[in-house]
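[09:14] KT: can someone run the structure on this one? pasting the chain below
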Amino acid sequence: MTTSPRPTPPQDAQARRDIQPVICYPNETLPTVDLPAIRTARAKAPHLETVIAPPREAATFHVPAGGYFRITSVDGPQVGDLNLWNAHDLSERFYSGKTRALHGTHLTTGERMWSSFPHLRPMATIIEDTLDWYGMDAFGGSVHDVIGTRCDPYTHYLLSQSQYHHCCHSNLTRAMADATGLPLHEAEVHVHDVLNVFMCTGFTRDTGQYFMKASPVRPGDYLEFFAEIDLLGALSACPGGDCSAEHSSDVAACYPLQVDVYGAVPPEGWSEPPRNGYDRTHGRDS
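[09:31] RB: done, structure tokens below
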């Protein structure tokens, strides 16, 4: 937000401010989520594997369509940066901006991670959130945001003129390269804006700046998802730890994050969501 002198307000300034807002994307017509049916099916899903994202590192995992995955805090309070891709088509990936427009700045139970254009369909649905009790605090902060991008070495260099290689962007890049066999610089272009799992964030009321505060997460807390398509996931254990003071450094206390993957036992009647039905003509006949 600008700090330069502001022009003199017009006589109707307050009247303009008092105009009621309009929700840009009313979401009542989105496909419904049958949480009871999904949870009943989840209870029958076999455990397939456990993956650990070490402190200041990232790990990848695969989840079959109709399966489940759970991200759990272990050892100490820790936030994580989550990327998702279609396991068979890396061009389809999590779209944080549109997810934010559809659901709001922070996600919780019953809300979905939507994929990028031209696909725009649910990739994963949150079915359990042990931090759902937190809600929105007095500072305007909440958990599991889709407003931050990911800590990255480029912004770090811009602000400090120093090289740092364990930002979440770099962690995810290395993990993606290892998972796909792509050269590092090719893998990097697939890394995208994240779901900030367990991170407590918001915008300041006076300057509109993105803020973070100590995450309320504790060992044993988890966020669990239903996979709507075959997924490749990557999770970075952020170098900021619980983000109570700083990120992108080796100073903060950091802990691992655990990902448990469960097999495909979808609820009765479920089918993989189709890609978006827009015809892609963009107003032209040919």
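[09:33] KT: thanks! The chain has six helices and 13 strands.
[09:34] RB: yep, looked fine to me
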